[in-house]
Amino acid sequence: MNTFLTLGQFIVENQKDFPYAKGELSRLLADIGIAAKIVHKKVNKAGLVAIFGDAGSINIQGEGQKKLDVFADEQFIQALTSGGECCVVASEEHEEAIYIPAKNASQAKYIVCIDPLDGSSNIDVNVSVGTIFSIYRRQVQEGVARLADILQTGDQQVAAGYIIYGSSTMLVYTTGNGVNGFTLDPSIGEFCLSHPKMQIPTTGTIYSINEGNYSKFPEAVKKYIKYCQEVDEATNRPYAARYIGSMVADVHRNLIQGGIFLYPSTLSYPQGKLRLLYECNPLAWIMEQAGGRATDGKQRILSLKPSSLHARTPIFLGSKDMVAQFEKIAQQLEDGE
Ligand SMILES: O=P(O)(O)OC[C@H]1O[C@](O)(COP(=O)(O)O)[C@@H](O)[C@@H]1O
Ligand SMILES: [Mg+2]
Ligand SMILES: [Mg+2]
Predict the structure, then answer these.
(1) Given phi > 0 = left and psi -120 to 50 = alpha, else beta, which region is 279?
(2) For 192, which of 56, 111, 165, 173 is 20 to 30 Å away at the CA?
(3) Domain Fructose-1-6-bisphosphatase class I N-terminal, which positions (predicted)?
(4) What is the spatial distance between Cα 28 and Cα 173, in angstroms, rounded to a whole number?
(5) Which residues are annotated as a binding site for Mg(2+)?
C-alpha cells in the first residue's frame, strides 16, 4: 500500500500555491515529471542501451554533447511541446529559444528554461547527474512570446526545481511556498512526497569547489578556501572538501547536510561557468526558499538581470551562515583589513 502522497495528489492539495494558474502550472509540472521518468529509465540503463559516450555534436556552449544530453533535451522539449502549457523553451542545448506554436486558440502562458542534463562529464562514469528547470509566466499575454519574456530576473520565477538521477531519482521543486522533495517509486511509476518542507541547515562543514582552478581564483575565494582548511574546533574546522562535478548533486547534498557550493570566475570562465537562466536562478530560488542564500559575490543571484539566454555568472550558494562568512572575508579584503 503506497502511504506517500504522489506528486499529482500533492499538487491538487496545494492548488493554493498557484492562485493564478487554474491548473496550467500543475499540468506543466506534471509534464516535466513525465519527461523525468523517461530520462530516469535511460540513465538507469545507460551502460546497457549505448546511451554512453559522445553524440559527436557540439552545442551552443561549444561543448561536446553526450548522447544523454541530446536524449534528455529531446524528451523535455517533446513533453513541454505536447503538454500545451508552455509557449517557449530556452534550453542549454540550443542557441536560440524554441517557440512553441499555440496548440489551440489560447496562447500558452509559461516559459521554461532548462538544463536537460546537468553534470554531463559524469554520465560515462556512473556518477549522479540531473535536470534543472525554471518556469516564468509571460509578462504580456497577447501576441507571440518574445525574448523579453524569457530574460526575466530570478525573482520573477513562478516555479523552479531539479531532478537528480542518483541512488534514487528525486524531483525537488518550489513555487514560492517552501521546497518539497519527491522520490520516484519505480514500482508504481510515481514521484512520492519523501522530503516535505526541506530546509538547509543554517551552517555546515562542507565546502564544494573545483580547487584545480585555485591559482586563478579571485583573492577572496583563495582566502575563504584557506579559512575552510584552518584548524578551529569552535567552528568545526577544517571543513570537508566535497566536489562531485554535477552542480545538482553538489547542491542537493548541501541542501540536506548543509554546506556551501562555490563556482567563481576562473581563467577559462571569467564570467563564471554556470548559466544564470537554467542553472543558477532555479537553484538559487530553491536555496532561498529552503532558508539558504545565493549570491554572485556582490548581490543576490535572483536579482540579476539576464543579458542573454546563456549568460553566465559566478555563484556562491548554500547554508546562510557559510555564505555570510564568505561575504565577510570578501568584504574584509575589499576594505583592506
Ligand atoms: O568541471 P568543472 O569546471 O568543475 O565544472 C563542473 C560544473 O559543470 C557542470 O557540469 C555544467 O553543467 P552541464 O553539465 O549541464 O554543462 C555543472 O554540473 C558542474 O557543477
Ligand atoms: Mg549544467
Ligand atoms: Mg547540461
Answers:
(1) alpha
(2) 111
(3) 6-196
(4) 13
(5) 92, 115, 117-118, 279
- Ligand nearest the Cα of residue 72 is 3
Task: Tell the residue nearest (CA) to atom 3 of ligand 1.
Answer: 210
Q: How far apart are CA 245 and CA 258, in angstroms?
A: 17
Q: Cell numbers 560515462 correspond to what residue?
A: 124
- Ligand in closest contact with the CA of 116: 3
The residue-averaged pLDDT of 179-206 equals 96
Measured in Å, residue 269 CA sits from the centre of ligand 2 at 14
For the chain, give the percent of residues with pLDDT over 70: 90
- 128-170 pLDDT, tens digit per residue, is 999 999 999 998 777 778 888 999 999 999 999 999 999 999 9
pTM of the predicted model as reported, rounded to 2 decimal places = 0.94
Which residue among 210, 246, 310 is best mutated to probe the pocket of ligand 1, counting the most ligand atoms within 8 A of its Cβ?
A: 246
Query: Are 284 and 221 contacting, i.e. CB atoms less than 8 angstroms apart?
Result: no
